[in-house]
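Narrative of activities, Objective 1.

The group set out to show that a structural description can be obtained from nothing but a protein's sequence at a throughput compatible with the screening campaign. Below is one input-output pair from the validation batch, recorded exactly as produced.
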Amino acid sequence: MRRSMAALGTGLAFALAFSASGPAQASTKPDGLIECYTDGAYGSLFWDGFKVGTTGEVNISLGLSDIASDGHHPQIRLVTEYYSGDKHYWPWRAYYDGSGSGYTWHTYAKDSDGMYEIGVQVANFEGNRLLNSKTCW
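Output recorded for this entry:
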């Protein structure tokens, strides 16, 4: 299984390349937006043309905002689900510049086992300690 993630800069685009495994039928989800809130943090995931189990690329955007003056640091990550129902939790992306603002990452992900669902997980941390989180599909 090959997994890779590479940063392409700031802004609002995140591309995924998929490889399918298993007998799932490919169906296109409409372009969409997932918004996800947890105490002190807001995250968003936008996709364009996601197909279940696709081997093509999907453009997405990951955005993160610190919405509380609480001294904690929000983080966000992509979450994908395999045909089996197992989850792949991608690396966390952190924002440290304080409340009232945020950041967006341009990157791409590739997983030769295919991705059958995409979501986003938003959390608040104090150092390495997870304080609270929420996953939205």
